[in-house]
């Protein structure tokens, strides 16, 4: 564990300095990056404008395949947003100490991915300017939105999740905002003063903070589970062969956590490199995240196997038709998905060397996310291609409009993340400091003792860091 | 009177619209498709878009080939909205653009439609068509638009209405004369045009009506009935090899 001991000697000020390095005054490189990402987002906006002007025909959708890349992207981005909850809330409740440097990055990932996800259904609408029909606004005709429609559940779930995950991010950031408030000047100081809400760091404040954090962690987990269950019910509630399946809700939740954990690993690698956080995001963090990814990968494989097995065994003509169509026409995508999500990931992650090697785990996490994107594509598009009436079976090809908007989504997410890390500490200072204190040692005669001991560290268990 | 003669509030309704399509009579000529386009202002999309699945037919003739060459037979089945009594398209619409009216029709409120296209995905018969573009009527089709029917804008879902404008007109006429609509008085454009009279439209709530009597035929079947959609369109089985040869 000697490689993990290098922090203890550092004093508070150095740690704060290092963890807020992302907030240093921007260089020309930063402006270049922001400008580049901004241009892609603007291009996506132009593409959307074109689509609104021309009609949905600008996208590749057609009569059998009424939902295309926008819905695929929507499910994909909602899936990514399950990262923050998973890492932050579950590990917080599990009191896994190694979570500390990852928390903020994962929570921010959640907020920005769910924001990006939330825009896709609007882009997908034939008449986005009629969006207000979704809202329960009292009107002369006494018309309400249709609460029987899974799409309306979706809107409620996504909105709840956006609000909940933003609060979760903000709450965890309070003490850090106070730190940056004390270290900044000018308009930034004013901004952080407002945002920090007068945090002083008194014992009472910390007590309330700890209680609130635990409470939020408990509350956000069922919200996250419900969000992706409801996304799955957009499909499972229909009569469409291949969609109408009881397994979809847990299958989608696991898939979401799977892609979310992989996304956290990817982002960890990026911010580690970009902000020189090598001392904080150490191989042990990748090792532990790799273990989680392995478990979720096994779960996903199990769910996928169950789904295909029941389809194959039941051999209901139309269900089997859908599956054979996927296997024949999209065999390369199906193969890539199974490779990326199971065949490569599971054996590779069994090895500690792979989990601790940052390039290796980066490649695996990217593979998983490509695999998960394909999974969503294979659920949405080929299933719609072959529905009950064979006369109108058809195929779908995405257009430049859809590709542009998807590129803009990635750029927009990266842009939000870049801006966020410029204005807010991307690594949770208070959590890392707390972890440092918890694991600090003191010399007493010839023995070295932990200066702090927590409940789970008793009975000779040193606890994981 | 069958069980279906009440609306969702329990009030008795006089009419329950239904259709019989006799596949033995259908020749696959496509006159119904043309008539429907003309009556309902269904836009023209052209060959290219049509080839990519953007054709907008409220009724289409599906052609299936049967047998091995040279003993090949073409089988036709005209497919229009089945006006399901338990319609999968209705509950999934988040804004109530798709709803069920008291006379058993799946109505579509164009003004309300936001274009989620969820209904079209959930329709097992795939009979809902979407305005992918602003509707176009190349000359001289623009000269013959039906003034009784709106032209739907881009981004809106549309579908067969059983020519609801004709139903409305005849209902008003009948009301003025203080009588119920006579059997065969209302003809949707497709049924009116069908040269071999393969389509019969009428009131299923009236046991004396032609549709009701035909619906008792031993040749009756409904499409994908096992899904429990309870369609109002009843097909009479074509003769097939065993009957016709």
How are the secondary structure elements laid out?
The complex is a heterodimer of chains A (465) and B (245).
Chain A: H1 12-19, H2 28-54, H3 69-80, H4 82-93, H5 103-124, H6 150-183, H7 186-196, H8 203-236, H9 248-274, H10 283-314, H11 317-329, H12 331-343, H13 345-349, H14 352-356, H15 358-385, H16 400-423, H17 429-439, E1 441-444, E2 447-450
Antiparallel strand pairs in A: 1-2
Helix pairs in contact in A: 2-16, 3-5, 3-9, 3-15, 4-5, 4-8, 4-9, 5-6, 5-16, 6-7, 6-8, 8-9, 9-10, 9-15, 11-15, 12-15
Chain B: E1 17-22, H1 31-40, H2 46-54, E2 59-66, E3 73-80, H3 89-92, E4 98-100, E5 106-108, H4 118-122, E6 129-130, E7 157-158, H5 164-176, H6 189-193, E8 199-203, H7 210-215, E9 220-221, E10 233-236, H8 240-244
Parallel strand pairs in B: 1-10
Antiparallel strand pairs in B: 1-8, 2-3, 4-5, 6-7, 9-10
Task: List the keywords.
heterodimer, A: 465 residues, mainly alpha, Formate dehydrogenase/DMSO reductase fold, 17 helices, B: 245 residues, four-stranded mixed beta sheet, two-stranded antiparallel sheet, 10 strands, disordered C terminus
Structure in a nutshell:
The complex is a heterodimer of chains A (465) and B (245). Chain A has 465 residues and is mainly α.
Structure description:
The complex is a heterodimer of chains A (465) and B (245). Chain A is mainly alpha-helical. Chain A has helices spanning 12-19, 28-54, 69-80, 82-93, 103-124, 150-183, 186-196, 203-236, 248-274, 283-314, 317-329, 331-343, 345-349, 352-356, 358-385, 400-423, 429-439; strands at 441-444, 447-450. Chain A has a two-stranded antiparallel sheet. In chain A, helix 4 (82-93) crosses helix 8 (203-236) and helix 5 runs antiparallel to helix 6. Chain B is built from eight helices and ten strands. Chain B has helices spanning 31-40, 46-54, 89-92, 118-122, 164-176, 189-193, 210-215, 240-244; strands at residues 17-22, 59-66, 73-80, 98-100, 106-108, 129-130, 157-158, 199-203, 220-221, 233-236. Chain B has a four-stranded mixed beta sheet. Chain B is globular and about 50 Å long. The interface between A and B is large, with 44 and 43 residues.
């Amino acid at each position: 564990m000697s490689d993990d001991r290098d922090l203890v000697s550092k004093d508070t000020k150095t740690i704060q300095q290092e963890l807020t390095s992302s907030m240093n005054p921007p260089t020309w490189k930063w402006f270049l990056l922001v400008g580049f990402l901004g241009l892609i987002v603007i291009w996506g906006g132009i593409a959307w404008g074109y689509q609104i002007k021309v009609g949905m025909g600008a996208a590749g959708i057609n009569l059998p395949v009424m939902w295309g890349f926008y819905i695929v992207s929507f499910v994909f981005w909602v899936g990514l947003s399950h990262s923050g909850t998973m890492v932050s809330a579950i590990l917080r409740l599990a009191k896994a100490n190694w979570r500390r440097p990852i928390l903020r990055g994962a929570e921010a990932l959640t907020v920005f991915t769910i924001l990006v996800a939330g825009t896709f259904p609007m882009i997908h609408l034939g008449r986005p300017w009629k969006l207000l029909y979704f809202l329960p606004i009292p009107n002369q005709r006494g018309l309400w939105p249709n609460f029987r429609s899974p799409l309306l559940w979706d809107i409620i779930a996504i909105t709840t999740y956006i609000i909940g995950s933003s609060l979760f991010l903000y709450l965890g950031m309070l003490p850090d905002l106070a730190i940056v408030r004390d270290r900044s000047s000018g308009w930034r100081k004013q901004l952080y003063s407002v945002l920090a809400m007068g945090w002083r760091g008194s014992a009472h404040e910390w007590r309330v903070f700890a209680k609130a954090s635990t409470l939020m962690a408990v509350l956000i987990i069922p919200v996250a589970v419900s969000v992706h269950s409801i996304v799955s019910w957009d499909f499972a509630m229909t009569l469409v062969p291949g969609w109408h399946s009881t397994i979809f809700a847990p299958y989608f939740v696991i898939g979401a956590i799977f892609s979310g954990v992989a996304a956290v690993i990817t982002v960890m690698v990026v911010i580690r490199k970009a902000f020189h956080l090598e001392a904080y995001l150490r191989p042990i963090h990748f090792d532990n995240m790799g273990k989680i990814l392995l478990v979720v990968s096994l779960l996903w494989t199990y769910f996928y196997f169950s789904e295909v097995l029941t389809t194959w065994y039941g051999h209901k003509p139309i269900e089997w038709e859908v599956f054979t169509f996927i296997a024949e026409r999209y065999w390369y995508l199906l193969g890539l998905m199974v490779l990326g999500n199971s065949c490569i990931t599971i054996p590779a992650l069994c090895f500690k060397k792979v989990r601790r090697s940052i390039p290796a785990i980066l490649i695996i996490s990217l593979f998983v996310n490509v695999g998960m994107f394909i999974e969503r594509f294979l659920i949405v598009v080929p299933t719609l291609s072959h529905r009950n009436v064979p006369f109108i079976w058809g195929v779908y090809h995405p257009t430049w409009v859809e590709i542009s908007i998807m590129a803009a989504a990635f750029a927009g997410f990266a842009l939000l993340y870049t801006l966020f890390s410029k204005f807010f500490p991307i690594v949770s200072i208070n959590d890392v400091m707390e972890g440092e204190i918890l694991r600090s040692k003191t010399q007493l005669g010839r023995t070295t003792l932990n200066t702090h001991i927590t409940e789970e560290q008793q009975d000779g268990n040193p606890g994981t860091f | 009177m069958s069980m279906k003669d009440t609306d969702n509030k329990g009030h008795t309704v006089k009419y329950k619209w239904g259709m019989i399509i006799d596949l033995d009579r259908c020749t696959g000529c496509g006159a119904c498709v043309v008539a429907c386009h003309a009556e309902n202002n269904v836009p023209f999309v052209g060959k290219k878009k049509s080839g990519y699945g953007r054709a907008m037919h409220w009724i289409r003739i599906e052609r299936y080939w049967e047998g091995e060459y040279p003993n090949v037979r073409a089988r036709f089945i005209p497919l229009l909205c089945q006006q399901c009594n338990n319609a999968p398209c209705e509950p999934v619409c988040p804004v109530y653009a798709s709803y069920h009216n008291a006379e058993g029709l799946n109505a579509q409120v164009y003004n309300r439609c936001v274009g989620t296209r969820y209904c079209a995905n959930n329709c097992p018969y795939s009979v809902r068509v979407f305005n992918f573009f602003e509707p176009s009527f190349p000359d001289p089709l623009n000269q013959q638009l039906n003034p009784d029917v709106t032209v739907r804008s881009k981004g809106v879902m549309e579908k067969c209405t059983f020519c609801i404008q004709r139903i409305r007109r005849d209902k008003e006429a009948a009301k003025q004369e203080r009588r119920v609509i006579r059997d065969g008085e209302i003809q949707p454009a497709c049924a009116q045009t069908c040269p071999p009279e393969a389509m019969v439209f009428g009131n299923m709530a009236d046991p004396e009506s032609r549709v009701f009597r035909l619906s008792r035929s031993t040749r009756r079947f409904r499409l994908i009935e096992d899904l429990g959609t309870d369609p109002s369109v009843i097909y009479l089985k074509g003769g097939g090899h065993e009957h016709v040869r």
